[in-house]
Amino acid sequence: TFAALVVTVVGSYYAFGAWWQGVSSAVELYRPSDPMQWLRPSGGGAPEEPVSRHLCLFFLAYCGVDSVLGALHYPEQIDVGYYHHALYSVLLCYLLHTRQTLLFAICGVEELPTLLVGGNHLLGDGGNPRFGVGVVFFLTRVSYHCWITARALDRLDPLLYWVSSVLLITHVGWFQSYLAKGSLPSKRQSRAAARVATGGSTGMQGGASAGPLHERALWSMATRHLLVFVAMLVGQALLHSTLTARVLRAAMQPPAADGERGGEWCRAAAWAAYVCVGNLLVVAYTVRRLARALRDVYTANFISDSLVARRIIYNISWEDPAVEVAELRLGQRDVILTIASAGCNVLDYLIEKPAGIVAADLNEAQLALLDLKLASLAALDHAAFFALWARSDAAVFEASYAARLRPLLQLDSSRAFWDTNGELFASNLFFAGSAGFGARLLRLALRGCGALDAVVRGMRRGQAPDPRGWGMRIFTLCLSQMWLWRLLAPLGGVPTSQIDLLRRTPSVWISRVCEVFCSRMWRADNYFYYAYAVGRWDPHCCPRYLRPEHYEALRSSAHRVALHHGPLASAAASRDDFTVASLLDSMDWMGDEQIAEQLAALLPHMAPAGRLFWRSFGVAVHSPVLAQLRPTLVPEQDRVGWYLSQWVARAHPPDAPVADPAEPSGFRRFLCVGSGYAPSNTLVDDAAVCLQLARHALR
Questions:
Q1: What pLDDT score does 33 carry?
Q2: Mean pLDDT to the nearest integer, 297-315
Q3: Element spanning 66, H or E
Q4: For residue 535, is it left (φ>0), alpha (ψ between -120 and 50) or beta?
Q5: How far apart are CA 144 and CA 150, in angstroms?
Q6: Backbone phi, psi, residue 608, to 5°
């Protein structure tokens, strides 16, 4: 902290001088008047200020002392410090040797984030990332570093230019890691959010409703922080692009006419090419990393944010219920435990008139969606029900919600949700939520390829458009790029855990996607893709629960559906006679420990002949915990096509391992937990390992 304080104070003085000289060369704040003129040595050596040289020596000594003390007293905290100190030690020695220490002094202000982090640690609050530190880090180590490098470019030698570019890329990587950790509100901001949530010190009494409001206030604050980061990243992209354009224009200027035409022109052309290629590569890589940082933050938080903010993630269920109905032969004796999702599968199961269905979900918005569908069954005729859920008819909702639908909702949270979210129907429910955002991206890509109209016409006719058209060729080519799926799939509600499963067998996934787009999605009854391409459902292409012949059966059985806010494990405790557990694709979202906990709570409540059904983005069973169920691959192909495998298993297979009395499920024994031993090497140990590796490579 002390080293950061010294470097920041001195660096701020030089940084202000460099900025001021850039806007008014007539003002002299210190000698030399323009520090930039001394950045590059000339002739027998350039003068430099004693303060800047002493600052370099001070920081060089700090790097050495901190490395030694870290290896002795806090080796776990200094892992990144070795890399940082070694790089800066080499750089500082070079600057001292070439008498360019003013460059380090001008960049010393970039230590301000380190000073803030050190202050937080001294105050006992350094464990969590902070929004203010993230903003300062970005402004100093990314934006300022980019600006100062561009301004000093004509005075930097090629080595220092590339070192500065590498440091910029490193800082962007650190900022990406910082965002991944989460920029949490500070204690003061949390207290302020709590006051807002509770209406002040004299507001609501009791804590019954303060908790959810406090969560929403914190979520609103986090949203504002994310928007600030977005604005900063856009501004950085514009700044970097503008500086790069100026550098390119300056680099491509012809040499003076009175110079040595031949040699001067060659040197100028070589430098121009060097600068052009280098700057273009750096700006492209930086913008790419910043875009990935935003995507990673969204991917890591879209589920938790949706839960706290009570937002819809899925507007329709993307699991084909026809597979379960056929494979499990659902009937009137079945009691089904499943995930609510958008409610489509629950209503499809209900057509088979099971004895009961328990639909669980962690997201109150998803439960509200199913709750409103059940209320609509009881209160509306088929024409109004179809208009509301197949056409997203806002007029039907407005005319019937307050008087007819709201009193029939099972959950108070559903009433609170629909009291304030009726505009979802006016803006088209099929494009709501994370899945709706993915649908908009799909339509945008089709429109950009000139294939949207052909796709819509083909969907309505049940016939695939001509694949030889240039639009369809471009779109198919885009679909075959795995990197594009890794980039965009999380924006449509697909978690990274499922993307990781696809990366194990990318060729299988690309082949499946092309097959779906070229044939499977054009089936006359494939209402999944029809909804997103056309923006509604029509009588000839819609889910079973929207067809008139099943409407009366649904109305008579709607009371058999119970809603549960929470995980499947807690919902399973509501009954002891579940014959079917439809897990959708939830097993892909969990790690082995979570799967074991869910099954440990679920299986004791399954009937002796109970069965489990789940889907996966993997071609094989991806968890050793699931493998204990001896699952069978379901050969039936669904209409969605995203899932590379579907599995069915008996809840109590006869050859299951004997359960431990202390662990009724017996699943925890199969987790690869390990002993917990974590080796801790010193710097000397790491150097010895590297030496042995080098010797082995040279044999």
A1: 38
A2: 67
A3: helix 50-73
A4: left
A5: 10
A6: -55, -35
What does the alpha-carbon distance between residue 156 and residue 36 come to, in Å, rounded to a whole number? 10
What was the pLDDT predicted at 140? 85
Which of 455-459's residues contact partners 24+ apart within 8 Å by CB, and which partners?
Answer: 455/533, 456/533, 456/534, 458/522, 459/522, 459/529, 459/530, 459/533, 459/534, 459/541
| Distance from C-alpha of 411 to C-alpha of 89, rounded to nearest angstrom | 63
For residues 120-130, average pLDDT: 62
Six-digit token string for 175? 């900022």
- For the stretch 429-442, pLDDT in tens is 988 877 787 778 77
Q: Is the pLDDT higher at 617 or at 49?
A: 617
| pLDDT, position 224 | 62
Long-range contacts made by residues 301-306, C-beta under 8 angstroms, separation at least 24?
Answer: 301/182, 302/434, 302/490, 302/493, 303/495, 305/219, 305/222, 305/223, 306/363, 306/365, 306/433, 306/434
String of DSSP letters for 357-406? EEEEES-HHHHHHHHHHHHHHHHS-HHHHHHHHHS--HHHHHHHIIIIIG
CB atoms within 10 A of CB 404: 15
Using alpha carbons, select from 385, 389, 383 the residue that is nearest to residue 428: 389
8 A C-beta contact, residue 622 and residue 595: no
Stated as kind and residue range, the H or E segment containing 336 is: strand 335-339
Q: What's the full length of the chain, in residues? A: 699
d(Cα 93, Cα 89) in Å, to the nearest integer?
6
Do you find a cis peptide bond into 604, omega within 30 degrees of 0?
no
Of 61-70, 195-204, 228-237, the poorest mean pLDDT is in: 195-204
